Amino acid sequence: MSNSLLWNLTLNIGLLVLIANLLTKNKIVRRMLLEKSGNLWSQATLAVFFGLFCILSTYTGVQLEGVIVNTRVIGALAGGILGGPVVGIGAGLIGGVHRYFYDIDRFTSVACAVSTLFAGIIGAVFYPHFQRGKWNQAGLFAITIISEVVQMAMILLLCRPFDMALSVVKTIALPMIFLNSFGMVIFMATFKNVFIEKDQESASKMSLALSIAERCLPYLRNGLSSREDLKSAVSIILSSAICSIVIITDRQQILARGQTDSNLDIDDFKELPLPAKQAMEDNQFVTLTETKNNTSLKGILRHHTIIAAPLTKMDHPVGCLMVFVKRRWLNLEADISFVKGLATLFSTQLELSDIDYQKHLRQRAEFSALQSQINPHFLYNSLNTVSCICRENPAQARELLMALATYFRQTLDSDRCMITLKEEMAHVNNYLILEKARFEEKLDVTIDVPEHLDCLVPALILQPIVENAVKYGADSYGRRRIRIVAREISDSVSIIVSDCGSGFPPDVLEDLHNGASSGNHIGLSNVQKRLKSIYGEENSLRITCIPEGSQVEFMITDAKEDTYNTDRKEPAQ
Description:
The protein is an alpha+beta fold.
């Protein structure tokens, strides 16, 4: 009898697992199982679904000494664990009521019916634990043992005569407890695969979204202002994801579109598509599958689903990402998650592009303010130089004034923050023309800058250093020997200005290091601030004081002119 009982229980468990495996392939069942908080209809449907498992277990059970030895506890318990209180209690009621009326004359009918309900309740109690992802086989095994022990206790409490109930429990307790516990683990593994497949697909889609966003990053730096960049982003999405059409819009019009299915005609979209308008108006994701009230999309919606996600800046919709995917037998949750994730990453990048642009504008404003400090300072010193020779040599003074005018015209004609090294050296040479006229043979300047060396440097970054060397770099005889050297080192350019003066006072060095403006060294303080702003703290001025004089060095790293000198045209909002 024992071997027959074990064999029949094993067959029942195998049958339940087979049916469960087949049903979890059904789209409707999968959707209801994957819903985080399903509606009452979904929960009622799942209750019936697991209740039918209980009924099937009753029909396939083995008659033994007035009881039906079966796997009914698995259906009710699994319903509670997977679906929550409504599903667990519902399945337990269905299975319990059926068990009572199925064999109402048997002395265990009431006990088995009540224990089935308790199994559903026990599953519901542990529902939150398993919803947190704590799928533990030992836990499932232990919970099933508890449910079976409750059933044995119900038989002993409610069935009479007690001697017969005790005899039944002795016979069926161990086989049902251990076989049903093993069966529960196997049965739940079938349903666990649904969640694993869902998580794997979602993870795959999110990984794809991150990969696409990373590849699209260079094309989103200008926001929605460049149609060509947006077309490149659309091409990347189409080449990486399984979709037929991709469209990017702003609030008024389509900015970029592309397709992989030549049978579809998207050139008919002259105006903003309805899903995009709805997504931006409600600031919510829109999934469109029906053709009702969408006559312009009727042909596409016959075989596709449209997923529209708003592109936002500071939670305000500024555009829309529309993706057309082919309808599939399985649900579109993974595709929806993919589009949502991609739109969220795109929105973040659009916000970052605005932050970069505002930073760029602020930086240019700072440069203009700092340059405005230099120009009056330079003008003051230059006019002093001209005034020194005005009476002695009016013709030379006129030439110097013309040189000064040329210098300022070159400065004022350009609003670029970054210029070439050759242009900067031209500014320096114009300055030195004025200073040589003043100091004559007492000023000796050596320039060692290779012709091929023509990197980008911040405007007016070298002239203040040279000016400082001319002003304070005289030896004890009043002679000024200035040397300007530029050398290429790896991907950077080192520029050194040295003199033969007495060096920098310690308080001046401390002020420059701390970023304070020293009254007699406005130009150097200006240079220090700009170098730190552009190249970072590690590339600020390096000042060395030696017995033979002082040396000021700074490094110019690789910089692209358009990083600082171009403006961005904003799209219409």
